[in-house]
Design the sequence.
């Protein structure tokens, strides 16, 4: 949830810590802080709010250290104040933490009984106090760290400085990711490859329970039992260019525009344009499968709903989709002949990871549709189906969503063929249609000006309804989610057929109702819903295609006409208008598009 960085450098680290924290801001931005060793002693600088607030503090009071740690926070225990900002210090120990310590209250009481006092309301401070307690007992730093870790339950990735040690940062991971970066006479710790990306591309991923001590020359890594271990050092491509905004105002805007290319790269990984075949690597026997269980959170869950529509229709394969946080705790009925598919942009979302682990423990084959290929999920499952849309920085997911849906479209075609539901000729026809998606998504993005005009008006609304049938229903959910996430307007997505079972009561002249309805087999039904809404004074924004426009009942406030396409790829083509709608409403309202309040991109705690 939070982002951490550590540098054992040969030159000043202040600017590099800040550069890295900016890359990690997607993980949280409630407060930020850095600490470094200055003349043998640890000093820290902290500020509530985003990194720029910390930059102001540092401009007034620079940190002239060559060894330092940094943190950007998404608050869990204790509000987003400077006092609760990391790094936290106790005695000789100063540390940054990502995760949640579940037994912190007991540890705090135990330490208080020993005469310790606490400055903050955080769970993190007890880790610092615990390590310091062990140091006081005479243990050397790495042993003190290990002794403290053994008392913690919960999730953590930490970076630790010790007063008096000017060539050492210690780290540990359990439940939250941590990487070690290998530079030239310099070493790094970070939450992910992006964090250390500007300094090195040689990275080792720590494994569950590992702890580490880095100095200028090396990293000494130990496993949970305290045995010295080696972790493979890999060359990782985290190109700086991929995380720049270019000419766009916001990452979200850029990422919406990245979609044709992101989908093209993703589709190319799963279909062969020459043979017209769809293939899912990893050896899943779709013919033998009885069921698929999809788990995910947020937008990824919605991509899963579309996966269900596609797979049940094309491959006659029963699919259940559930939000991971429900699935993992409700004791679901699981069968071995079921493939569990997690969907996750980050590959680190705590609930999705736990849901996949549950499936694995019950003997099911597990797969993940994931963007971060080095993530915990990608490393733990049996089969990895990557999306290839590049790093997604905007908190509200856009290009990962369409890339995920692209994977499920290819998967549905591959499974349909494997299960004998379609012949080679039909597979080739569907593959050809899927290959047209990137071009049509680009055309759909060209609706930007029309959508912006709708958005200006919508920005005054208090509530917005999104309605759709068939595959447009999940997309209605996604439209509502995007709008509430970044513009803070209350929005609900509904299956249009449910209109009469509740949401119609909300319809009045002030409520915009977005109806998603391409000219498909559901069109007539959706058009009736449109009439029902208009008869009650509702202001309809009708998102359709040229044939839908021709057949729509008169009276919609606005019609946005997306390009004509085959129903197979309609969710991909219709996604851009709803993303752009949310984007421009948020811009019009002056909201912080890339970092909406209270949200974080990667939810690595429950
Ligand atoms: C957060 C993000 C969403 C994302 C969800 C799942 O809520 O704001 O954009 O869809 O997490 O994240 P994942 O990384 O698992 O796809």
Sequence:
């Amino acid at each position: 949830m939070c982002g951490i960085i550590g540098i054992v450098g040969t030159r000043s680290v202040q600017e590099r810590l800040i550069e890295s924290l900016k890359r990690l801001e997607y993980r949280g931005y409630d407060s930020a802080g850095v600490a470094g060793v200055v003349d043998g002693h640890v000093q820290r600088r902290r500020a509530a709010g985003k990194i720029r607030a910390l930059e102001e503090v540092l401009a007034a009071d620079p940190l002239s250290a060559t060894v330092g740690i940094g943190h950007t926070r998404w608050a869990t225990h204790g509000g987003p104040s400077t006092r609760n900002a990391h790094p936290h210090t106790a005695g000789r120990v100063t540390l940054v933490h990502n995760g949640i310590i579940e037994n912190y209250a007991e540890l705090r009481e135990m330490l208080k009984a020993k005469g310790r006092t606490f400055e903050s309301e955080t769970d993190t401070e007890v880790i610092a106090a615990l390590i310091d307690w062990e140091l006081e007992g005479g243990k050397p730093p790495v042993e003190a760290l290990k002794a403290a870790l053994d008392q913690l339950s919960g999730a953590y990735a930490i970076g630790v400085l010790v007063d008096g040690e000017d060539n050492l940062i210690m780290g540990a991971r359990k439940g939250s990711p941590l990487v070690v970066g290998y530079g030239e006479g310099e070493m790094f710790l970070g939450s992910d490859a992006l964090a250390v990306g500007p300094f090195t591309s040689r990275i080792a991923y720590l494994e569950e329970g590992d702890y580490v001590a880095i100095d200028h020359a090396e990293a000494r890594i130990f496993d949970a039992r305290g045995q010295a271990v080696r972790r493979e050092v890999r060359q990782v491509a985290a190109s700086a260019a991929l995380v720049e905004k270019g000419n766009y105002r916001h990452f979200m805007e850029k990422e919406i525009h990245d979609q044709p290319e992101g989908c093209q790269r993703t589709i190319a990984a799963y279909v062969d344009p020459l043979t017209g075949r769809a293939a899912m690597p990893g050896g899943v026997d779709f013919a033998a499968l009885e069921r698929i269980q999809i788990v995910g959170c947020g937008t990824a869950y919605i991509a899963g709903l579309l996966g269900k529509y596609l797979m049940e229709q094309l491959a006659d394969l029963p699919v259940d989709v559930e939000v991971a946080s429900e699935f993992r705790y409700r004791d679901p009925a699981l069968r071995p002949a079921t493939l569990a598919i997690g969907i996750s942009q980050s590959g680190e979302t705590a609930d999705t990871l736990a849901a996949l682990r549950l499936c694995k423990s019950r003997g099911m084959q597990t797969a993940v549709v994931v963007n971060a290929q080095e993530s915990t999920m990608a490393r733990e499952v049996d089969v990895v189906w990557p999306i290839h849309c590049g790093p997604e920085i905007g908190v509200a997911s856009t290009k990962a969503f369409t890339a995920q849906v692209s994977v499920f479209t290819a998967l549905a075609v591959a499974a349909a063929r494997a299960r004998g539901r379609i012949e080679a000729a039909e597979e080739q026809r569907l593959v050809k249609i899927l290959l047209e998606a990137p071009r049509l998504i680009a055309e759909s993005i060209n609706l930007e000006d029309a959508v912006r005009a709708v958005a200006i008006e919508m920005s005054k609304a208090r509530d917005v309804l999104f309605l759709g049938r068939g595959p447009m229903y999940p997309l209605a959910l996604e439209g509502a989610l995007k709008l509430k996430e970044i513009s803070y307007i209350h929005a609900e997505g509904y299956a249009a057929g449910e209109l009469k079972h509740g949401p119609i009561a909300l319809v009045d002249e002030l409520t915009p109702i977005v109806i998603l309805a391409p000219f498909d087999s559901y069109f007539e039904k959706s058009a009736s819903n449109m009439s029902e809404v208009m008869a009650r004074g509702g202001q309809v924004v009708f998102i359709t295609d040229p044939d839908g426009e021709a057949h729509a009942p008169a009276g919609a406030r606005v019609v946005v006409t997306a390009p004509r396409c085959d129903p197979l790829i309609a969710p991909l083509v219709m996604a851009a208008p709803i993303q752009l709608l949310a984007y421009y409403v948020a811009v019009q309202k002056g909201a912080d598009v890339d970092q909406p309040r209270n949200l974080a991109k990667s939810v690595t705690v429950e």
In short: The pocket of 6-O-phosphono-alpha-D-glucopyranose is lined by residues 297-300, 344-346, 349, 352, 395-397, 599, 601-603 (CB under 6 Å). The first helix runs from residue 14 to 24. The CA atoms of residues 15 and 316 lie 56 Å apart. The two ends are 10 Å apart (CA to CA).
